Amino acid sequence: MSSNTMYVPTMSLxxxxxxxxxxxxxxxxxKAITKEEMGIKQQQNLTHLHFYFHDYVKGDNLTAIRxxxxxxxxxxxxxxxxxxxxxxxxxxxxxxxxKIIGYAQGMYxxxxxxxxxxxxxxNFVFVEGEYNGSTISVLGRNQVMNKVRELGVVGGSGxxxxxxxxxxxxxxxxxxxxxxxxxxxxxxxxx
Length: 191
Ligand SMILES: *[C@@H]1O[C@H](CO)[C@@H](O)[C@H](O)[C@H]1NC(C)=O
Ligand SMILES: *[C@@H]1O[C@H](CO)[C@@H](O)[C@H](O)[C@H]1NC(C)=O
Ligand SMILES: *[C@@H]1O[C@H](CO)[C@@H](O)[C@H](O)[C@H]1NC(C)=O
Hints:
- The protein has helices at about 1-20, 35-40; strands at about 45-55, 65-70, 85-90, 100-110, 115-125, 135-145, 150-155, 165-175, 180-190.
- It has a single domain (about 35-190), classed as Allene oxide cyclase-like (AOC barrel-like, Beta Barrel), CATH 2.40.480.
- The termini are far apart.
- The protein is mainly beta.
- It binds 2-acetamido-2-deoxy-beta-D-glucopyranose (3 copies).
- One 2-acetamido-2-deoxy-beta-D-glucopyranose binds next to loops.
- One 2-acetamido-2-deoxy-beta-D-glucopyranose binds near residues 127, 128, 132 and 133.
């Protein structure tokens, strides 16, 4: 009887000790910091970027290449299921020999079963002046037959850290002689 009463508290103490060694210690993986500590200015910059996107889908120097498609892609009215990888030049003016200010690197997929509607996921990688090396990340829907399409700016790097905003795309030429579609972009970004 007496050995039994001793046994119960000893064992529960033992289990308690075992249990406590399994309770994870709090690891400080996140903490609040101030904008001052990060050297972040209180006032955000608002920048309007304007350039032309050249999507070379035909010809000798392709910059947009179909990398995958669904078994029935060619039977759909919209090219559904095709996936295109791009590294398209971005230029100041609409001409193909206009000065290159960056590249659109990423992918677009035909994501709409009924009409040509793209899911675009790409980075605008700038190579000029104070923007050289900085990027803007875009994720959005591009219904290519519409006059103006709007895509979200979801982030950025370098000059464009903390970027948010939107991009508007307008087709200038659809598949010209050089094998390119040229699209005018107006990008409004807070950063
Ligand atoms: C951000 O705004 C400040 C103040 O107007 C300006 O000096 C700076 O050049 C801007 N930076 C960019 C990357 O536009
Ligand atoms: C393709 O690139 C090569 C090498 O840069 C160049 O010589 C050629 O003119 C380009 N072709 C077209 C159609 O632009
Ligand atoms: C952009 O940055 C790269 C890498 O730092 C450098 O090689 C290149 O000369 C720069 N271009 C311009 C136009 O400043």
